[in-house]
Design a protein that fits this description.
The protein is of the alpha/beta class. It is 19% helix and 26% strand. The protein has one domain: Metallo-beta-lactamase, Chain A (4-Layer Sandwich). Bound molecules: zinc ion.
């Protein structure tokens, strides 16, 4: 039994150039600075809770509930300006888990697709999970003083490195088959960030991909539209091409992106 619960954990307000860089190639546009606030678009911020038999896995965390009352303390002033977080009551990741009868300590692990603030802000809410995993490449990136990362969500948490292995069949030759049965496989997928990953969830025949920000919506992988924030453009294109190929497989039931408003299923059973 595999269930993927798709949680919408509030919204992020971004410049229209964030999901689709054809609108503006100016790097400053993605920050929202000096842009018309009326043009801002609001996208869902999703996290995914996967039940695989008795295993419980959370992928990404959405916003910390502290953004409701203390957003600047929670995510810093520049990130607040850039992302205008909103998190209605009941939508924090721990609140949605509890609604399903799951306590954070019951989680086997949290897997981070990458460490942008709209994905890792809620780590504090699920810090009692048995493991908090991030890729080695992303771990290095968040410690490299790049302005895109802030330490507030994770600096006192015991992050662990995903034990990736060499895998010739993976697009970047690195993967982690968590239960050694192909059910939940983490694939290195750089481009949007240095150490982004995609999670492939499979029941042996049908599968779904949880892609984080490797694509903002269908047009990203159907038309290979790179989003605004890109760490490495060539990798971004390669990664989107890989997602496109997978989506064309008739056994692929869903590509789940973190900010895709069009995909509205809340439960995908494999
Ligand atoms: Zn994001």
């Amino acid at each position: 039994m595999i269930n993927i619960h798709c949680f919408t954990c509030g919204t992020v307000g971004v410049d229209p150039a964030v999901p689709d860089r054809s609108i503006s190639r100016s790097p400053i546009a993605y920050t929202g600075l000096f842009r018309n606030p009326k043009d801002r678009i609001y996208l869902p911020v999703k996290a995914f809770y996967v039940e695989y038999d008795s295993h419980k896995i959370l992928i990404d965390t959405g916003w910390d509930s502290a953004v409701r009352n203390h957003p600047v303390e929670a995510i810093t002033f520049p990130m607040w300006v850039a992302s205008k977080p909103s998190l209605p009551e009941g939508q924090a990741v721990d609140e949605q888990l509890r609604a399903l009868g799951v306590m954070p300590k019951d989680l086997d692990m949290v897997l981070m697709t990458h460490m942008d603030i709209d994905h890792d802000s809620g780590l504090r809410l699920v810090k009692d999970a048995k493991h908090l995993y991030v890729s080695k490449e992303e771990y290095r990136a968040i410690h490299s003083r790049q302005v895109r990362y802030v330490k507030q969500p994770w600096y006192n948490l015991p992050l662990e490195l995903m034990p990736m292995q060499k895998d010739e069949s993976a697009p970047y030759q690195a993967s982690w088959d968590i239960y050694q049965d192909g059910a939940i496989k983490v694939l290195l997928m750089p481009g949007h960030s240095e150490g982004s990953v995609v999670i492939r969830v499979s029941n042996g025949s049908r599968f779904a991909l949880i892609v984080g920000d490797t694509g903002y919506n269908r047009s990203s992988w159907e038309q290979l539209k790179a989003p605004g924030p890109v760490y490495h453009m060539e990798d971004m294109k390669t990664s989107l091409q890989w997602v496109q190929q997978q989506r064309q497989d008739p056994d692929c039931v869903a590509v789940l992106a973190a900010h895709d408003a069009e995909e509205q299923r809340t439960l995908i059973a494999l």
